[in-house]
Amino acid sequence: MKLNYNKAEFTAAYGKFSQIPPPERIEIAFAGHSNVGKSTLINKLMNRRNLARVSSVPGKTATINFFGLEHIYLVDLPGYGYAKVSKSEKERWAGLIEGYLNAERDLRLVFMLVDMRHKPTADDVNMINYLIDTETPFVIVLTKADKLNKTERAKRMAAFETEIPCFDEIHTIAFSSQTGEGVEELRSIIEDIADDNGDVNGD
């Protein structure tokens, strides 16, 4: 099913999980460390420059943001792991993320973003372990792929095998907002999910 990405629109932002209404559509979530490039990825997928606000300041996305794309929602979760915020703010973000992931929603997939240039953080590994343990379907998206040359990329991919749990069993996509690498593969996954548009909370 071909989706009209140009018609994607920002729907709502929620600062507390209790504010989020019951699920109306199937959902695909985007998770990752602060400044890993979630907003940039969403904008690239949707052919839009400013659909999701991109900030040079890590930790700027402090809400769960919903974007409508035909009969599905793309859900941008707050970036985690940013040190320069208060403990209470960190706890609020954690509550938002955990509340969303633990809720009875029609969540079909999580795109788990990891910066391809670096070893995953402890928070990244914890999130991946959580997704594995809860049997939540997910794909790892390795962002900023254009920043590495061929040798550096091969070295990082080899390192990921020991750094990321079950790495060889996880579908992984290299992504670059600069070159467009990975965009069509990511869209293909979204479209496959959109094709399976059963009732809310049903498979």
Outline the fold blueprint:
Blueprint: E1 9-14, E2 26-32, H1 38-45, E3 64-69, E4 72-76, H2 87-102, E5 107-115, H3 122-133, E6 138-143, H4 150-163, E7 172-174, H5 183-195
Parallel strand pairs: 2-4, 2-5, 5-6, 6-7
Antiparallel strand pairs: 1-3, 3-4
In short:
The chain has 203 residues and is an alpha/beta fold.
How would you describe the overall organization of this protein?
This protein is an alpha/beta fold and 203 residues long. It has one domain (5-195): 3-Layer(aba) Sandwich (Rossmann fold), CATH 3.40.50.300. It is built from 5 helices and 7 strands. It has helices spanning 38-45, 87-102, 122-133, 150-163, 183-195, and strands at residues 9-14, 26-32, 64-69, 72-76, 107-115, 138-143, 172-174. The protein has a 7-stranded mixed beta sheet with strand order 1-3-4-2-5-6-7, sandwiched between helices. Helix 4 links the parallel strand 6 and strand 7 (172-174). The longest helix is centred in the middle third of the chain and has 16 residues, at 87-102. The protein starts with 8 loop residues before the first strand and ends in an 8-residue tail after the last helix. Mean pLDDT is 87; it is low at 55-60 and 198-203.
